[in-house]
């Protein structure tokens, strides 16, 4: 397929406001895709691999700028001016391809396959000279691109397609292309995606084997599963009333750490965060504990990874460290062994999605039993801790009366944990869903996770730092971020300096002291109140927002949604 045909599709998607229109447009493309289906399904969202594969292409704006300059003959300052004027390096590339003045003597039309594979392979370039080779590869594509093609090659290389296609649209398009498009068909595609997290597998299965094939798709060690999510409840008693089956609910500590999915297949171990990012290399201590402690050839376990003050891990009074401290272990710092000693981690296991076979359809009580069966029985529960053991079960009680839940809640808070999880013991595991069978109770008004969309340099003493950050909540229908306020307090100088370093890598356009950013950094923000506001795209504004920290474990599209802000506003 010629890349020009895909570019037409991108233009149509960008020009279509309705999600049904986008769905139908993509369904047509998928139905005719033949052997390119896998590639087209990821390219439709400007990606080159499934969502969980976070291999970075390592293509920065400045590398792309160099490639544009080299391929088109346009000067760097001309491309920069254009970039600044439109805020999009893709548009600047289109302009350069048209006006750059370079004559290509030998031009080979771009194909979808060539663009996809060339960009995907950039991630493998490593070591000395790799930057130059990347520039060459991108410039090679741009040299053969017409202006419209250049726009999308650049946007795909930078990971920001700007055609407004969310995961829901891909799901619906697959249901229309290969099934009957009904609500049942959409559900079948959705479930298949939640267990595989790979639209390539889902689309190909829908095409080859229909609804039955999708239903047969299963979790597999090594391929992260979307985690089951919790709903908020106002009180322990209310949560128990909602979650009880036959009068009994399971209460567990709500640990304040990082959700971790542990996958085991023989000697292979993988760790994934809730945003399905692989963090195996960052936790060698946990990996060895899993190798030593999990007695199953294949398993997928779910738990919360918590950091504890080093001297306290082996005592009765374990002292959990703040989430921000733990998140140092998630970032790719080099000395992982030293960090493991400084911030020892314990995984509190609470679920088992698969052992030798899938357990998603089993009730929680069975899955929990499986969890205990496959983890070495000498591993103590957290109330009988022992040094050097990184796997523990989450502390839990079965309750049938509200007072017991309330006192367990107090116990959890007194031990320094975040609150209470209340679970229905008969519930199946529902990947990616908030279905009310998993409830959380926390003491305060919940902070929001929001994405930094643009920023302004501060004045005065902090003038080198991006101290005013515009925050967006996610609009899943449009796959866009709607602003909900501006943040300028709560950070220390060090935090602000570090944040500025990160945000400066994401700048897409500058205008004086204002910068536009790729929406990639998620912040946890507390606030006093939500107000209606015509000033921001979401229609709401946070009153007195304060920075709490960076949420390394939350993907931008998992940030709080416009709908969530709306319902918090209603509930105030
Ligand atoms: P929050 O910010 O409140 O953690 P969230 O949006 O990150 O919310 P939710 O699914 O709404 O995630 O809240 C549940 C989270 O609590 C889980 O994802 C998990 O990371 C964590 N957690 C801590 N302890 C437990 C436990 N015992 N059982 C289940 N989840 C737990």
From TrEMBL:
Q: What does this protein do?
A: DNA ligase that seals nicks in double-stranded DNA during DNA replication, DNA recombination and DNA repair.
Gene Ontology biological process terms from the UniProt entry: cell division; DNA biosynthetic process; DNA recombination; DNA repair; lagging strand elongation
Q: Which UniProt keywords apply?
A: ATP-binding, Cell cycle, Cell division, DNA damage, DNA recombination, DNA repair, DNA replication, Ligase, Magnesium, Metal-binding, Nucleotide-binding
Q: Name one Pfam family in it.
A: DNA_ligase_A_C
Give the Enzyme Commission number: 6.5.1.1
**Binding positions (ATP):** 252, 259, 274, 304, 350, 434, 440
Q: Which residues form the ATP-dependent DNA ligase family profile domain?
A: 338-475
User: Which species?
Assistant: Halobellus ruber
**Reactions mediated catalytically:** ATP + (deoxyribonucleotide)n-3'-hydroxyl + 5'-phospho-(deoxyribonucleotide)m = (deoxyribonucleotide)n+m + AMP + diphosphate
Q: Name one GO molecular function term.
A: ATP binding
> What are the positions of the active site?
254 (n6-amp-lysine intermediate)
> What is the protein name for this chain?
DNA ligase
Q: Which InterPro entries match?
A: ATP-dep_DNA_ligase, DNA_ligae_ATP-dep_bac/arc, DNA_ligase_ATP-dep, DNA_ligase_ATP-dep_C, DNA_ligase_ATP-dep_cent, DNA_ligase_ATP-dep_CS, DNA_ligase_ATP-dep_N, DNA_ligase_N_sf
- Which family, according to the similarity comment? Belongs to the ATP-dependent DNA ligase family.
Please indicate if the UniProt record lists Glycoprotein as a keyword: no
Swiss-Prot/TrEMBL cofactor(s)? Mg(2+)
Taxonomy of the source species = Archaea, Methanobacteriati, Methanobacteriota, Stenosarchaea group, Halobacteria
């Amino acid at each position: 397929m010629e890349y020009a045909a895909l570019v037409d599709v991108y233009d149509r998607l960008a020009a279509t406001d309705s999600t049904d229109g986008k769905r139908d447009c993509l369904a047509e493309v998928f139905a005719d895709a033949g052997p390119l289906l896998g590639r087209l399904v990821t390219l439709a969202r400007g990606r080159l691999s499934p969502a969980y594969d976070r291999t970075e292409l390592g293509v920065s704006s400045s590398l792309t700028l160099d490639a544009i300059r080299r391929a088109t003959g346009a000067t760097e300052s001309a491309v920069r001016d254009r970039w600044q004027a439109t805020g999009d390096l893709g548009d600047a590339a289109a302009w350069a391809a048209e006006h750059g003045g370079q004559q290509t003597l030998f031009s080979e039309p771009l194909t979808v396959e060539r663009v996809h594979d060339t960009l995907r392979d950039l991630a493998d370039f490593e070591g000395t000279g790799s930057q130059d080779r990347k520039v060459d590869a991108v410039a090679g594509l741009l040299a053969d691109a017409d202006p419209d093609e250049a726009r999308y090659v650049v946007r795909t290389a930078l990971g920001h397609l700007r055609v407004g296609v969310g995961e829901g649209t891909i799901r619906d398009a697959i249901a229309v292309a290969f099934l009957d498009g009904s609500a049942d068909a959409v559900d079948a595609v959705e479930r298949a995606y939640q267990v595989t997290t790979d639209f390539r597998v889902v689309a190909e299965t829908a095409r080859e084997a229909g609804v039955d094939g999708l239903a047969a798709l299963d979790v597999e060690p090594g391929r992260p599963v979307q985690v089951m999510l919790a709903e908020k409840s106002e009180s322990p008693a209310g949560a128990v009333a909602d979650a009880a089956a036959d009068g009994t609910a399971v209460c567990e500590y709500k640990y304040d750490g990082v959700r971790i999915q542990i996958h085991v297949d023989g000697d292979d171990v993988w760790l994934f965060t809730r945003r399905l990012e692989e963090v195996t290399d960052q936790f060698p201590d946990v990996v060895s504990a899993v190798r030593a402690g999990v007695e199953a050839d294949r398993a997928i376990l779910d738990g919360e990874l918590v950091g504890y003050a080093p001297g306290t891990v082996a005592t009765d009074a374990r002292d959990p460290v703040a989430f921000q401290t733990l998140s140092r272990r998630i970032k790719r710092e080099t000395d992982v062994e030293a960090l493991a000693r400084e911030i020892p981690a314990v995984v509190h296991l609470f679920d088992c999605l698969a052992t030798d076979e899938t357990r998603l359809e089993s009730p929680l009580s069975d899955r929990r039993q499986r969890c205990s069966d496959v983890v070495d029985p000498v591993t103590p529960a957290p109330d009988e801790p022992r040094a050097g053991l990184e796997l523990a079960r989450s502390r839990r009680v079965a309750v049938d009366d509200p007072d017991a839940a309330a006192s367990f809640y107090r116990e959890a808070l007194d031990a320094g944990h975040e609150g209470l999880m209340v679970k229905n013991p008969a519930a199946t595991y529902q990947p990616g869903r908030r279905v009310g069978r998993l409830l959380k109770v926390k003491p305060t008004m919940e902070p929001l996770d929001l994405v930094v969309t643009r920023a302004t340099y501060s004045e005065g003493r902090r003038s080198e730092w991006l101290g005013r950050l515009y925050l967006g909540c996610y609009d899943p229908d449009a796959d866009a971020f709607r602003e909900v306020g501006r943040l300028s307090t709560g950070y220390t100088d060090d935090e602000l300096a570090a944040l500025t370093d990160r945000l400066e890598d994401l700048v897409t356009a500058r205008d004086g002291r204002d910068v536009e950013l790729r929406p990639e950094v998620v912040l946890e923000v507390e606030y006093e109140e939500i107000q209606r506001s015509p000033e921001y795209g979401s229609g709401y504004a946070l009153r007195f927002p304060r920075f709490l920290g960076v949420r390394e474990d939350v993907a931008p599209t998992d940030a709080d949604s416009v709908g969530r802000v709306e319902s918090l506003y209603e509930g105030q």
